[in-house]
Amino acid sequence: MIVLAPNGEQQSLMPLNVGPSHGATHGCLRYMTALDGENIVASVGEIGYLHRGFEKMAEQGTWQQVIPYTDRLNYCSALMNNFAYCRAVEQMLGIDLPERAKVLRVIINELSRIADHFICVAAAAQDLGSTTGFFYLFDSREMIMVIWEKLTGARLTNSYGRIGGLYRDTYTGFEEDVLAVCRQVDKNLHDVHACFDRNRIFLDRTTGVGKISAERAIQWGWTGPCLRATGVASDLRKDEPYFDYETYDWDVTVGTQGDVFDRLMVRLAEAEESCKIIKQALKRLQPGPINVDDPRIRVPDHAHTYQDMESLIGRFKTVYEGIHVPAGEYYSSSEVANGELGFTLVSDGSGKPWRVKVRPPCLTQFAAFDELIDGALLADSMACLSSINIIAGELDR
Amino acid sequence: MSHCENRVETPVVATAEARQEFAEKVLPILESRFGAVRDEDDQWGFTVVVEGAQLRNVVLFLRDGHEYRVNMLLDVVGVDYLGFKDYTGPRFAVEYALKSVYNPSRRIRIKVRVSETDCKVPTISDLFPIANWQEREVWDQYGIVFENHPDLRRLLNHAEFQGHPLRKDYPAHKRQWLSTNDFLLPELEARLEAKGYKIISRSKEVVPDAEEYLTGSIKQ
Q: Residue B95: which of A32, A219, A344 has the nearest Cβ?
């Protein structure tokens, strides 16, 4: 299109469509740019290619039947989404988890966080042409996936969280596997930092690219590592502690510039902090119950069902009617790998949720994408896109 | 690590007392100045119900009128109460979840009830840029109109989608045949114009309106 630029010059801009099925638009999203040579003059984003009606489907079943859907929100760290949803319902029910369940949730949360951050940084490295970095990071991520297979029976969509506890207890050798992951993460982080920190090509592609100020990031509703990269030490695990996060010794990592480099490095540093938490949590892991002792909330196991009338009733009631969550409305939020994952739940007192609304952390980040890549090179928009870690599953729901 | 640092200062922790204190402090002001009422449905958090006409004033007051600095809009949620047990109020509600980034005990949800006949809420997309997309989503899913919204289009569903799927009277099993993606060129041109560019000649793909664009879909 021929335009008259603000400086009075006549220019020819090329509208260029990127996505929805493009190698660097992880998942399925699209943006259209007006290009002046290689520079982006303006751009417009479009989402919704992975919209599958999560919120409508959640209203159709019982409270427990929402859990498998939450796996599909952020499929890079499905277990965290399970726990965030379960926690929201547990808060409405007013129940407190047994110690072992809390410690296990912390360990699994932090392992998921490492896996999620590593996928983000690995994919960003791949987009920038560093296949070596990609494989270093996928090394320990694969070990975590193997733990998921042993623990939950699935690699990606685990559905391991339950309202009032966990699906099942850990397997023999879980602790050793987790410790081995921690060791591997340390080693991989060392290698990746050696790859990136003084790499001229990587630094040129990432420093000063896609910058956003802390003030602007807050206006756009950014949370999680992307907000922390701008220098705001906001982390729900510290601010509004749950699962006893306040009793672990770890630090919130912040960046200073709010550019692509900071967003990626904050994620790597957070993986290090997660390892610290996991090591402390493993020391606290004692044998004990993993579910609340209430047959109306957590389905009793077979041994009890066949022996005890109350458990038998509980088993039928929870499966057929669902858990009776007290009528009311609540907004609960948890810190997942990408930021604040919020669930707005409306209950009418029956076994089915009236309304489940997800606040996906990605949406706020992608909404600001046009501003982020304003005036940048087209190639830099790819670096930006991978650094804000868009997961289309939760973006589009 | 070249320019990332581990911050050691103690962050503000949101305790139950701090939340209670914030609610007790801000509620009387909202009640007297904006006619807000505490929502008893939310027995776990802090929600106030306000009239649609007062929404922008309340949001502005919380954002920068006072020392509260509730500076982040987290979510805009639509709710349809059609058939809700023992419910007699207006059919819809729009809820705004806000928090203060620097003091997380300051969390508040603002609820506006919307009747089916009126179905309008003033936009706050000029106060929080993120509200632009979040309001588009509520419009898409519930058909609630946000007055003075700069670009009220569907966000998640296709441009040619009929109806509003999250309404309770929209059947969950209903299918629609959809084939096109969004028509982004007019918006791209609008952005360029907002930046001071003047369009002299259009690309040949630009058709006059979205209506004509949709006629090109394979549905025809």
A: A344
